[in-house]
C-alpha cells in the first residue's frame, strides 16, 4: 500500500524528541536505524538555542533517502512550544532550510493565518495538517479524501480512544479514506495503532525511546515485534484481554513465536474496561482468538458458545478461539501449564501435593493435579474456601499448622504473596516447607523469596514462569494447529523478565 509518505517501512514514523540538541541528535540516529521517516519534535527542545543548534546539525548532515517531518506544536495544540502561530511558523521555516520535506501543522495554527492557508510561508513543501482531540474520539465523516489541489498533502486525525468501539471508528476512518493518518491515542487505542497501517492509514507513529505515554509502542517493537508495516488483511489477528494489560508478556511470547515459525499473524494487547465493548468489535479488528487474563477469566464464560468440559469444571477460561461463523469456544491452558511445569521434576501418580491459596489458579492447579493422579491438599486463609475447593477435587482441606507437621512431595504457592513490588515477602516460613519440591505460581520476580527459602533448604524449585510459558505454548498450538517454537519464545520472555528485574532492583 502506498501513501504520500511512501511504501512499506517509510509509513512507520519514528518520533524523535529530546530536551537538548544532543539528546535529539541521538534519538534521530536511533530512529534512522529503524525507519527512513522521522518526526522531529522541535517543540520539545527546551529553548531556542537548542533548536538553532539542532537544526544547524541537521543541515550539515545531508541525510540521504530519509524524510523528516518537522513538528513545533504549540501548547494550544497539545505541544510544548510557548509562543504564537508566528513563532511556530518561524521554526518550521528554519526546518525547511535544514532539509525537512514535511511539516506537521495543527488546524489551530492554520485557522489563525490570513486566508487560512500557509501559502506565502516558506515552511517545508509538504504539509500534514493535524487535528488532535486529547479527550475523546469525536464524530468523524464516514470518508475523508485530501483534496489534490490544496496546500495540504495529508491530514492527521489523532483522537483519544475511550473504548474499543472508539478505536474501531478510527480504524474505519483509515479504511475508508485517502491520505489520512488515523491515530487512536491512549492505552485502549494500542491495537488500532498497530493495525492502522493495514487499514490504510498513511502513517503510524512510534516513539524512538521508551514509550512516553500509555498506548505507545517503542519503534523497535512496532517494527520488529508487531511488524505494523507488514500486516495485511490476510494477517491473522489475535489478542490478549485484561485490565490492566500493560505488563502482559503474551504479546512478546506469541509474536516471537509467529516470527520464528514464519506465521502471518500478530497478537495485540487489548485493555478491556468493558467486556461487551470488546466482544461487539471483534470482527472489526478481525480477531481470530484471544487470551484472557484478570479480571475476565471467569466472566468470559457467560459470553461463550462452547466451553471445554475441563474449563467448565475449573470455572475459568484463558483461551478463546473465534470460529469462522463468529462462534466463541473457550478452553483453559493454565491447567496444562501447571502440569507441564512440574512434569520434569516429579511423578504425579500417588504424590501428596499441597496448594497454598484457593483462588482461580489454585483451582486450575488442584484439578490438573487431581486428574494426573495426585492427592491434593488445600491450605487457605479462609477455611471455607479451602474446604470448597478440596471438595471439588476430592482432596483434603488442611490447617496452616499442618504444614509444619506433615510431609508432602510438592507445595504450590497460588497466592499473590511475594509478587513485585512486595518481593521481599515469603508467604510461608522455612519450617512450613516440608516437601521435596516447591513451585511458586508467581513469575514477577522469577525467583521469589519463597523459592529462595526453599532452595536454601535444598528443596527443588519451579518458577511460575515455567507455567506461564507452558500455558502460552499450549495456546499458541491451539490457534496455529502446529507445535510452538518453544526455544525462541522462552528466550524472549526470560530476557524480558531479566531486563525488568535488572532495571527494578
Ligand atoms: P485469586 O483468584 O485472586 O486467588 C488468590 C488466592 O490467594 C486466594 O485464595 C486468596 O485468598 C489468597 N490470598 C491473597 N492474599 C493473601 C494473603 N495475604 N494471605 C493468604 N492468602 C491470600 O488469584 P489467582 O488468579 O489464583 O492468582 C494467584 C497467583 O498466581 C498470582 O500471583 C498470579 O500472578 C499467579 N498466576 C500465575 C500464573 C502463571 O502462568 N504462572 C497464572 C495464573 C496466576 P482470599 O480468597 O481469602 O482473598
Topology summary:
Elements: E1 2-3, E2 6-7, E3 12-16, H1 21-34, E4 37-41, H2 48-61, E5 67-71, H3 85-97, E6 102-106, H4 107-112, E7 126-133, E8 154-160, H5 164-176, E9 180-185, H6 190-199, E10 204-207, H7 219-224, E11 236-242, H8 250-260, E12 265-271, H9 275-280, H10 282-285, E13 287-292, E14 306-307, H11 309-314, E15 319-322, E16 328-331, H12 334-342, E17 352-356, H13 360-371, E18 375-379, H14 383-392, E19 396-397, H15 402-405, E20 408-413, E21 435-440, H16 449-456, E22 460-462, H17 464-480, H18 486-504
Parallel strand pairs: 3-4, 3-10, 4-5, 5-6, 6-7, 7-8, 8-9, 11-12, 11-13, 14-16, 17-18, 17-20, 18-19, 20-21, 21-22
Antiparallel strand pairs: 1-2, 13-15, 15-16
Bound molecules: NADP nicotinamide-adenine-dinucleotide phosphate (NAP).
Short characterization:
The protein is α/β, with parallel strands linked by helices and 505 residues long.
Description:
- By secondary structure, this protein is an alpha/beta fold.
- Helix content is about 35%, strand content about 20%.
- The protein has 18 helices and 22 strands.
- The chain has helices at about 20-35, 50-60, 85-95, 105-110, 165-175, 190-200, 220-225, 250-260, 275-280, 280-285, 310-315, 335-340, 360-370, 385-390, 400-405, 450-455, 465-480, 485-505, and strands at about 1-5, 5, 10-15, 35-40, 65-70, 100-105, 125-135, 155-160, 180-185, 205, 235-240, 265-270, 285-290, 305, 320, 330, 350-355, 375-380, 395, 410-415, 435-440, 460.
- Strands 9-8-7-6-5-4-3-10 form an eight-stranded parallel beta sheet. Strands 12-11-13-15-16-14 form a six-stranded mixed beta sheet.
- Helix 8 (about 250-260) packs across helix 17 and helix 12 (about 335-340) crosses helix 17.
- The model has no long low-confidence stretch (mean pLDDT about 95).
- Bound molecules: NADP nicotinamide-adenine-dinucleotide phosphate.
- NADP nicotinamide-adenine-dinucleotide phosphate (NAP) binds next to helix 12, helix 13 and helix 17.
Amino acid at each position: 500500500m502506498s501513501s504520500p509518505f511512501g511504501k512499506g517501512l517509510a509509513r512507520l514514523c519514528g518520533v524523535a524528541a529530546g530536551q537538548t540538541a544532543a539528546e535529539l541528535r541521538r534519538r534521530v540516529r536511533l530512529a534512522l536505524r529503524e525507519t527512513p521517516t522521522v518526526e522531529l519534535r522541535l517543540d520539545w527542545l527546551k529553548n531556542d538555542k537548542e533548536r538553532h543548534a539542532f537544526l544547524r546539525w541537521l543541515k550539515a548532515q545531508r541525510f540521504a533517502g530519509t524524510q523528516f517531518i518537522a513538528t513545533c506544536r504549540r501548547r494550544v495544540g497539545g505541544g510544548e512550544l510557548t509562543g504564537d502561530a508566528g513563532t511556530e511558523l518561524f521554526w518550521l521555516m528554519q526546518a525547511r532550510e535544514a532539509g525537512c520535506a514535511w511539516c506537521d501543522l495543527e488546524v489551530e495554527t492554520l485557522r489563525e493565518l490570513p486566508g487560512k492557508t500557509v501559502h506565502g510561508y516558506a515552511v517545508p513543501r509538504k504539509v500534514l495538517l493535524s487535528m488532535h482531540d486529547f479527550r475523546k474520539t469525536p464524530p468523524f465523516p464516514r470518508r475523508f479524501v485530501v483534496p489534490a489541489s490544496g496546500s495540504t498533502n495529508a491530514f492527521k486525525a489523532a483522537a483519544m480512544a475511550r473504548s474499543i468501539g472508539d478505536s474501531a471508528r478510527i480504524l474505519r476512518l483509515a479504511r475508508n479514506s485517502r491520505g489520512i493518518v488515523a491515530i487512536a491515542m491512549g492505552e485502549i487505542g494500542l491495537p488500532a495503532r498497530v493495525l492502522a497501517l493495514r487499514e490504510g492509514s498513511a502513517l503510524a507513529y512510534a516513539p524512538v525511546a521508551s514509550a512516553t505515554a500509555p498506548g505507545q509502542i517503542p519503534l523497535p517493537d512496532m517494527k520488529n515485534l508487531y511488524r505494523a508495516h507488514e500486516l495485511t488483511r490476510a494477517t491473522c489477528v489475535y489478542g490478549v484481554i485484561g485490565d490492566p494489560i500493560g505488563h502482559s508478556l503474551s504479546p512478546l511470547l506469541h509474536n516471537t513465536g509467529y516470527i520464528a515459525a514464519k506465521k502471518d499473524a500478530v497478537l495485540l494487547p487489548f485493555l478491556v474496561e468493558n467486556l461487551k465493548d470488546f466482544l461487539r468489535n471483534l470482527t472489526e479488528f478481525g480477531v481470530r482468538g484471544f487470551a484472557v487474563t484478570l479480571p475476565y477469566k471467569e466472566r468470559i464464560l457467560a459470553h461463550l458458545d462452547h466451553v471445554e468440559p475441563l474449563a467448565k469444571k475449573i470455572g475459568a477460561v484463558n483461551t478463546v478461539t473465534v470460529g469462522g461463523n463468529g462462534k466463541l469456544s473457550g478452553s483453559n491452558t493454565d491447567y496444562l501449564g501447571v502440569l507441564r511445569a512440574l512434569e520434569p521434576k516429579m511423578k504425579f501418580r500417588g504424590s501428596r501435593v499441597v496448594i497454598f491459596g484457593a483462588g482461580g489458579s489454585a483451582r486450575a492447579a488442584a484439578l490438573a493435579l487431581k486428574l494426573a493422579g495426585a492427592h491434593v491438599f488445600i491450605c487457605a486463609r479462609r477455611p471455607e474456601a479451602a474446604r470448597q475447593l478440596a471438595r471439588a477435587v476430592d482432596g483434603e482441606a488442611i490447617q496452616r499448622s499442618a504444614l509444619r507437621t506433615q510431609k508432602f512431595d510438592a507445595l504450590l504457592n497460588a497466592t499473590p504473596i511475594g509478587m513485585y513490588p512486595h518481593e521481599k515477602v515469603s508467604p510461608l516460613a522455612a519450617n512450613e516447607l516440608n516437601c521435596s519440591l516447591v513451585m511458586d505460581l508467581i513469575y514477577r520476580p522469577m525467583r521469589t523469596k519463597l523459592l529462595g527459602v526453599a532452595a536454601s533448604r535444598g528443596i527443588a524449585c519451579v518458577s511460575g514462569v515455567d507455567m506461564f510459558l507452558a500455558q502460552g505454548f499450549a495456546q499458541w498450538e491451539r490457534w496455529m494447529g502446529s507445535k510452538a517454537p518453544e526455544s525462541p519464545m522462552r528466550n524472549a520472555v526470560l530476557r524480558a523478565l531479566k531486563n525488568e528485574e535488572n532495571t527494578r532492583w
